[in-house]
């Protein structure tokens, strides 16, 4: 098989892997790079022959995995598009929202090529998406190519436990097999249960490495971390401050809301209004509606009933007094022009307020710069805000939706591939995995595939 990493950058970037297997081509994921703009944020589709791609499979509905899907479909117009049935319920919302964001960026930041696709185009394309169940094998190669009656390669989605609908992909050919982790979580989150990647064996493994540079804290438990967060929120509210939890709309929002509902149910936090974003609201409703179909904990929890949720619109935000409020709001990395960015800019200078991170923030994003800044000192938050002084409380809570590095390393051993591709991670994260895999499994070949480079495996 031949594998091409289409991520335009060397960091986490935009996920997109082209697989060539026994005369067939499968594109796995079509993300956009969260830090790059315009055409530069897209995967390197141009490096691949247009007509020869049989299928596109999407691991989950985060932007770095699905944001370029309509562009990919324009390039590879014959390809069928597959995703899990839970992703199928989410994907259109994600992509329509992304059209809105791009339109706003065109107006506010003057990025002329935006939007990269339109609402009308999306409506047309989405009617061709195929919804698949977890743990079912189906043929993905173009029907016309199999006229010799040979066996077509198959694809199977396995529950990745990362966000609603997230999947790893098992690809089986006549002679070779490949497994792609997508984004994976090997431990239970508050809502979603751990990945079900049991008994996965493959010749080639493509894996995420998000947390490769993160050393596990000794004695860490998720429950203790949840209560540490609860105590911190309580302290901030008590001193008249507000609490901002910057999150992604899909997955992080619902997990954090579930954490708050538990803390409120047990009396650790007083019940009060919680502000969320419009898109966060939509996905919260889908989490509630699909509770029975999801491999999850707390399946009787309906976030919308358990909590007093209010959607925060721009107008309300502008005039709002920031005393004793809780915000669970986008974006997770506090990208400019998002409510989390605007709130943080207002909160960061005052000691009574608290900003609590509960997920990954790229060091080069406003969130990452805020994390890195020293208390009491000035730092540049974003080009729009310029320098700010960091006086608010800030902390980082480890409630990740990504596997710990030790768990992933063990998984590599179980899958027992002859070749491993390290992706979806910053340089130090990939380096840690490369070193560890070399030491533990010395026979495996390891590739940190560079953008646009094709590797025979
Ligand atoms: Zn993800
Ligand atoms: Zn991702």
What does this structure look like?
With 457 residues, the protein is an alpha/beta fold. The protein is 30% helix and 20% strand. It is built from 13 helices and 22 strands. It has helices spanning 63-66, 69-75, 85-109, 119-126, 222-238, 252-265, 278-289, 303-306, 314-319, 339-347, 366-372, 405-415, 427-440; strands at residues 2-5, 17-21, 24-28, 55-57, 80-84, 129-132, 138-139, 154-159, 167-172, 177-180, 204-208, 243-246, 273-276, 308-311, 326-329, 354-357, 378-382, 386-389, 393-396, 419-423, 445-447, 454-456. The strands form 4 sheets. Strands 6-5-4-3-2-1-22 form a 7-stranded mixed sheet. Strands 7-8-9-10-11-20-21 form a 7-stranded mixed sheet, covered by helices on one side. α13 (427-440) links the parallel β20 (419-423) and β21. α3 (85-109) runs antiparallel to α7 and α12 crosses α13. The longest helix is centred in the first third of the chain and has 25 residues, at 85-109. The radius of gyration is 22 Å and the shape is globular. It starts with a strand and ends with a strand. It binds zinc ion (ZN) (2 copies).
